Every structure is written in structure tokens, then in C-alpha cells.
Automatic annotation (TrEMBL):
It comes from Antarcticimicrobium sediminis. Residues 36-80 form the Transposase zinc-ribbon domain. It holds the Pfam family Zn_ribbon_IS1595. InterPro entries: Transposase_Zn_ribbon. This is IS1595 family transposase.
Amino acid sequence: MSTKLPSLSSIEKEHLHWMQLYLRLPDAGVGPMFSSDEACRERLVDVQWPDGVWCLKCRSKTVGYMMSRRTFYCEICKHQFTATSDTVLRHSRVSIRKWFLAAELLIQHNAKNPELNYPTGHDLKDVLGISYAAAHALKKKVLDDLSFPEVGLVGDCVLTKQPEPLPMYIPKVGRRHFQWVRDRFEKSLGWEPYDDETLVLMGDELFKMR
Ligand SMILES: [Zn+2]
């Protein structure tokens, strides 16, 4: 006998997305993993050009780097560009590291509080030490980058872990998938697993609790 499980609400679909992102954040945290702006810049370069930097204008791979200006230059067409030139971070006055930290904060908050619009621009302002206007704009851009279903460059930078493979017996969509992800998420937070049935060992006896 099989029981039909209710399909996911739009809030649950959104929540699933954030929990999946949460499970891919580095165990040590984004701050320690990318401890300087330079480390973040290197990460941006690695993610954008995994096979080596090529020119954004002519695609040549004959590209040099001016350390003092943190600028790449193309030896073929003379075009100059940086790690952020062709990205959502271009012209941003907020450091790359604060973009990364904002992404982590948004993922953590939205995975834990699926029905609340956290963190606010004020929260980000306080945590990152930037102006409210900058925090508000940053939140919007980072949320766009992280949004369902595909994440953008900032997401690719901070999500350093591959997703855990789904067991064969779990369908790729639907409530069982949601529950499987939620169990992993809650376990990673040290929360009690959310199960209808829990096996409890009392003395030598195994009890099934409902
Ligand atoms: Zn070029």
C-alpha cells in the first residue's frame, strides 16, 4: 500500500533550495576559508577561468598580470581587465570578501528561517560594517545571484562542496527528496531529526517511538 504524499508548496520549494545551498557551504565557514580579499579574488579567477585566464575581448590565452594594479592584460589585443570586470561585482565599492560573507549570511538565514525575509539590510550593515545603502544594494544583488534554480558566480565561489549524491531510492523531486535534504540540513545543525518514527534504545530493547 502506498500513500500519496502532498506535493511541495512554493515556500517549501524555496526552502529546499536554500537548504541545498547551505549543505554546500564550506565546513569551516566562508570567512576562514577565504580569509583575505586576495584569497577571494583568487577564488573568483579560479571559478571564472578554471582552465587558465583568457582575454574577455579576443579570447586569447596569452594573458599577463600586473600585480600592482591587480589587472590582467592581453598580449594580443592589449585589452585590460580584472577578476571582477565581467561580473556582478564590477564597480562595487564593497570588497569581494564582503560579497562572499553576505552570500553565506543569506544562505544561512534563508535555510533556517524559510518564511522570514532575513537578514534585513540593517542586519547586513551591522555584520559587514558597511552603509545601509550599500548593504541594501548588496543584499539584492547577492539574492539574485543565489536565486532558485541555478546559482550565479558568487554562489559558485562560496559553495565549495559538491552536493551529496541522492540515494537511488529517493526520487529527484517531491516530498521524499525534501525530507531527505531537510534531514541532512538539520543533522548538520545538530538538530534532532524530524521523523514520524524514531528508534530508541532503552536497556537492551529497541523501541519504535511514534
Ligand atoms: Zn585580447
